[in-house]
Amino acid sequence: MAALPIPPLEPVLAALDMAGVAVFAVSGALAAARIKQTIVTFAFFATVTGLGGGTLRDMLIDAPVFWVGRSDYLGICLVGAASVWLLRADRWRLDALLWFDALGLGAYSVLGAAKALSLGVPPLPAIGMGVLTASFGGIVRDLLAGEPSILLRREIYVSAAALGAGIYVGLTLLGLSLWPAAIIGAAAGFGLRGIAIATGLALPGYRPDTDED
């Protein structure tokens, strides 16, 4: 059965899409810079981080992978990697990587949910697609860089993506137009992640009762 054509993204979602790829690509290149890798590794980290979440999302919702057949997405990743290399990002603090990642998380949580909704995915799974789009690239980046995965730290990350995607989906179901719903959702996801970065806000860990009778 032939795949159904994918409706074009609205301008605001297209902008969030490009912005999410760009900032995630930079965060991937920054991870390569921190471990003193080559320019080829910079490009690979940038590409995997920038495109990984959206690629997995499209495979799961049976949509054509968004960057295949186009040059601009891959080009953005390569430009991001080259920019970090030329700017000598090994001098940057860890905070730079975290804040670029937070920007990408906010944008991609909304974009992932919006694309899923546009293809008929129900609201709750669409929120899940937003979370996956926003977090998977960063998870792979940390794995490749030998860093502890964000999933294994209590610091708020996935919850911020869920907030952004959930607010977007909820507002659209309430009839709010795409522009404000997308902006509010992306800002909420970025804001919660930003608070976690700035203050160390974290979810409580599991503490089983170890008292003996």
Topology:
Layout lengths: L10 H24 L4 H22 L11 H15 L7 H25 L4 H23 L12 H16 L4 H22 L14
Helix pairs in contact: 1-2, 1-3, 1-4, 1-5, 2-3, 2-5, 4-5, 4-6, 4-7, 5-6, 6-7
Describe the protein:
By secondary structure, the protein is an all-alpha fold. It has one domain. It contains 7 helices and no strands. α1 (11-34) crosses α2 (39-60). It is globular and about 50 Å long. Mean pLDDT is 85; it is low at 1-7.
Q: Indicate the mean pLDDT.
A: 85
Beginning-to-end CA distance, first to last residue: 63 Å
Main beta sheet: none
Structural class: mainly alpha
Flag low-confidence runs: 1-7
The percent of residues in helical segments reads 55-70%
Shape descriptor reads globular
* Proportion of beta-strand residues: under 5%
Quaternary state of this entry equals: single chain
N-to-C SSE series?
HHHHHHH
Q: State the domain count.
A: 1
Q: What is the radius of gyration?
A: 17 Å
| Number of DSSP E strands | 0
**Count of alpha/pi helices:** 7
Can I get a quick summary?
With 213 residues, the protein is mostly helical. The protein contains seven helices and no strands.
Keyword list:
213 residues, mainly alpha, globular
